[in-house]
Amino acid sequence: MKFTAKKTIKMAVVGGAVAATALLSACSGNGVAGNGSPVRNAAETAAAAEQVPEGAGQGAASGGTGGSGATSNGDVNCSEHGGQVGAPGRQKMDLIAVAATDGTTPGCTEAFTVIAEYYDKLPQAEGPGERVLDVRGRWTCARQADAAGAQGAVVCGVPNDSLQLETRPAGGTGQAPDKQVRKFPNSTHSVQFTGYDADVRMARFQLTVPGKGGDARPVDGKTYRLPLQPGGKVFSAATLCPSESGTVTIDDAGLGNGPCSQDKLIQQLTEGNPVRAQISVNGDDRIASVKEIYHP
C-alpha cells in the first residue's frame, strides 16, 4: 500500500499577529478530516487545507519535495509532515500510522486528530497506564508503561479492527526514528500470561523462573505487554487447547506441541485464565510463538 503526502506551510493571521502553522494534507489510507477548521492563506487564494489539531505537531518538515514518510515495513511517519507530538511537559515523539497485516493504515490527519484528543482527555484517563477508552467515538489509547527510554509513548487502536497508531522516540527533532525502542527482540522467555488488552491488541505477562514444586516464580514482579505476531504459532500442552481425549501433548522439555491457535490463547487470557508458557519474540518485539508449559 503506497502513501503520498504534501508538505504545505501557510501563514494564518490571528488577532493581528502572524503565526506559522503547519498544515497537513491527509495521507492516503483511512484518513478523515481533522478537528481543525480549514483556513486560507491571506496572500493567495488556494484550496483550504486541513489544520493540524492543537496539541499535535507544531511545524512541518521543511524543504524539498519530501517523501511519503513510509518505512520499509509500511508504517507511515506522520511527523515528517506535521511535526512531533507529546503531552505537555513530556518528551516529543514521532507519530506513526502503523501498517496492519491486512494492508490498512490510519490516515495521518486522523492520526493527529486522535492523538490530540487523547492528550486533551489525559486528566480523565484511567489508572497508571493513562488509558482513555473513548477517543473520537471508537479509538482507545494507552501509555506504554514498559517502554524503556520512551516516557509517555502511546499506542492507540480500534477494538475489533486492525487500525493502530503509536508514538515512537525519534533520532532527532522532526526526523524519523532510526529504530523503535524494543524490549525483548529476538529472545525466548518463560512467562506467566496475566491478561489481554484487546484495545491495543497486546498480551500482558510476567517473566518467570521455575519455583518450588514446579510453580512459576516472578523474576522482577513487573508486568509487560507485547503484541502477537500475525500468524504466530501457538502450541498446547493440556489446558490451552485441551484434546477431546484429555491427552497431554508435550515434547521432551515439557513444552506443548499440540497445535492450537492465537484465538484460543486470546480467549483464555480474556477470560482471566493464567497461562504459563515459553514465548519466542521476533526482531519487531512481537510474540512469534507460544508453547504452553506443562505442569500437572
TrEMBL record:
Residues 44-87 are annotated as: Disordered. Keywords: Signal. PROSITE patterns: PROKAR_LIPOPROTEIN. Residues 56-69 have a biased composition (Gly residues). The keyword Signal applies. Residues 1-33 form the signal peptide. This is Lipoprotein. It comes from Amycolatopsis azurea DSM 43854.
